[in-house]
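User: Predict the structure for this protein chain, please.
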Amino acid sequence: MASFFGSLFVFVCLAATAMAATAPAPPYYIITNAETPSLNRPGLTPVGKKRAEDCIPAVFSQLNIGFILSCKVDKDGEEGLGCPVANETATPLAQALGLNITYCGTGEESNDDCVHDKIHAFLKASNQSALVVWDATDMDSLLENADVNDAGLDEDSLGTHADLILTVVSGKRVGQSSMNCTRLDGPA
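Assistant: Here is the predicted structure, written as structure tokens:
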């Protein structure tokens, strides 16, 4: 009888290991900052504030987010000038979920592996999803530094449409969709 339970234990452990090895990695999502005023004026527009305060928390609170990553201005202050509005966009969701925002710098003086390393470390240790909220003017660098296989992705549309959500699983883009914010997003 003891060997039966021993064999059963080994079988259960092997099955659990096999299931864990084949379980898909949780997705992570990438969005840009919400709408900003023209002529490089600071902050979010009224529409951007509504997106950040109402729409983004409603959309992403349903997606099991356990980690939020955003950008910060690089050490020499020349890159990442849109990061303050990316952070302003991420803050209401972080507060609603009780999460802190983690940051990576942008530009020449920053660690290019920061985004990739922080996202993958979180996803490896968790079954929750992650959200990256980034400066809309720096999406090319983000996708490169996050090692996103962006074949077929229109990076220009991602940086110019505050309603787009890029879904990534295991480094591959698996979807691009609208937030569908009522009275904020027009027909696609």
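Residues 82 and 135 are 5 Å apart (CA to CA).
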